[in-house]
Amino acid sequence: MAIKSSRGAALIIVLFIVALASILAVEMSANLLVQVQKSTNIQGHQQAKWYAYAAEELAIKAILQSKKDDPDKTTLKQIWAQQGDVPYPVDNGTLQGKITDLQACLNLNALRAQAPQTGSGSTNKTNPAHSALLALLENIENLPAEESEEAMADSVYDWLDEDSITYRSGAEEDEYLSRQSPYMTANSYFASTSELRLVKGFNPLVMEKVLPYVCVIPGSELLAINVNTIDPEQALLLSALIDGLSESGAQSVLSARPEDGFTDIEEFFEQVNQQGAQNVKSVENLFTIKSEYFKLQTQAKFVELRFSMTTLLQAKDGEVTILARKFGGVQ
């Protein structure tokens, strides 16, 4: 009986060891599969990233070629603007890119520019970009704002300026530090339009209405709207920059634009004057027919992995410089 009992105990121990070994083997196998999948995902993500970089190089070549073919103007008929919605096939994936002109929208950083002097001892800080943003906010239909349009425009100025003194009905540190999640004003340039969400009055619904008309050129106060690349759907921006030009009048101006663009800025203002615009001479320097700042939005797919990248580019003196990159999302 003792021998049989010992054999039974040994059998149980052996079965326990076999069960434990089986559990460990399954666990090790599962971990190995996770590591293999993780490594595959990393490699796939890296390949999609390199595809996006390839699109970036292609965009640079397209911009350079457009500048070479027609150095005197930038239009929507040039190579850089010829993009379709159909993704380009690559090995085990697809690649899609879209280039837009950053001078076909209101550069928010231009609100930081020095305002023109109106007389000795003047404390006026309103510059053309500030006035344009205010007019834009006032003319956007059904703007779901909780603040006045003037307060919102002044708050953008206060976010950008170097001091901590509240301008008119704007907002500075005391406003933002009193919130449940306190923060300070940047007192510097916007890096992305998404930062506008932090400014007083710019709730998500307002952002949705405003974003089609505004953009950010990193570190630049440039305000020079290219009348050859501004979209007819952005006619409201044109009317916000020119006194006496209604939205319908701005649409008429853009409808009269030649297919290959205006040959000079005077041709554009001839159309503007026909629509009853006023004080045109005072805003002539706000418009151009050439652009040097562009934005590339790239979507790359490798197998089932997706990679998004936004690149800001500057074309100047025969070269294209990468100003900034953002991975994922939209800038």
Structural commentary:
The strands form 3 sheets. A 5-stranded antiparallel β-sheet has the order 1-2-7-8-9, covered by helices on one side. It is of the alpha/beta class. The protein has helices spanning 2-69, 128-139, 149-160, 173-177, 204-210, 235-241, 247-255, 265-274, and strands at 88-90, 93-101, 106-107, 214-215, 225-226, 287-288, 293-302, 305-316, 319-327. The chain contains 8 helices and 9 strands. The mean pLDDT is 86. The chain has a domain at 113-206: EpsJ-like (Ribonucleotide Reductase Protein R1, domain 1). The longest helix is centred in the first third of the chain and has 68 residues, at 2-69. Helix 2 (128-139) packs antiparallel against helix 3, helix 2 (128-139) crosses helix 6 (235-241) and helix 6 packs across helix 7 (247-255).
Distance between the termini: 81 Å
CATH architecture of the domain at 113-206, by name, is Orthogonal Bundle
**Spatial arrangement of strands, main beta sheet:** 1-2-7-8-9
- The level of helicity is 25-40%
Give the radius of gyration.
Answer: 29 Å
Summing up helix and strand content along with how strands pair, one would put the structural category as: alpha/beta
Poorly predicted residue ranges: none
Shape: elongated
**Biggest beta sheet summary:** 5 strands, antiparallel
Listing every helix as H and every strand as E from the N terminus to the C terminus, the arrangement reads: HEEEHHHHEEHHHEEEE
The portion of residues forming beta strands comes to 15-25%
Report the total helices.
8
The CATH class of the domain at 113-206 is identified as Mainly Alpha
What is the CATH T-level topology of the domain at 113-206? Ribonucleotide Reductase Protein R1, domain 1
What name goes with the CATH superfamily of the domain at 113-206? EpsJ-like
The overall average pLDDT, rounded, is 86
Count of individual beta strands: 9
